[in-house]
Amino acid sequence: MWLNIHGIRVDKIIFTQGKSKTNICKKKRIDVFIEDSVKNANELADVGIKVILYSTEYNLSLDRKDIIRCYDWASIVKTINQIMRYEEI
């Protein structure tokens, strides 16, 4: 898998197959979600899930203080590590 090849450890990858990501995340107790869709990012953040937004041309309009924008996988990994260290305190 691409993520493993690049040293990105994941607990689980969930394919929603058109179902609401918000409902699945709440059911699975997911704390942090990497997203690129404006709609999904807003919905996830609205229910308190930490969203890391993978920056693309089509989501540049999204500007929320509770959504963390990252421009590459290295910064996503760094952000997740920072979140996890903060929550352990």
What is the secondary structure topology, with strand pairs?
Blueprint (H helix, E strand, L loop, with lengths): L1 H4 L15 H8 L3 E4 L2 H9 L3 E5 L12 E4 L2 H16 L1
Parallel strand pairs: 1-2, 2-3
In short:
With 89 residues, the chain is α/β, with parallel strands linked by helices.
Number of domains: 1
- Helix percentage: 40-55%
SS content category: alpha/beta
Mean pLDDT: 87
The strand count comes to 3
Q: Identify the strand order in the major beta sheet.
A: 1-2-3
Strand content: 5-15%
Low-confidence stretches: none
Number of helices: 4
How would you sum up the major sheet? 3 strands, parallel
Specify Rg, calculated over alpha carbons: 13 Å
Shape: globular
Element-level helix/strand string? HHEHEEH
Quote the distance from N terminus to C terminus.
32 Å
Labels describing this entry:
single chain; 3 strands; 15% strand; 89 residues
Written account of the structure:
The chain has helices at residues 2-5, 21-28, 38-46, 73-88, and strands at residues 32-35, 50-54, 67-70. A three-stranded parallel beta sheet has the order 1-2-3, sandwiched between helices. It is α/β, with parallel strands linked by helices and 89 residues long. The protein has one domain (11-88). The chain is globular. The protein is 42% helix and 15% strand.
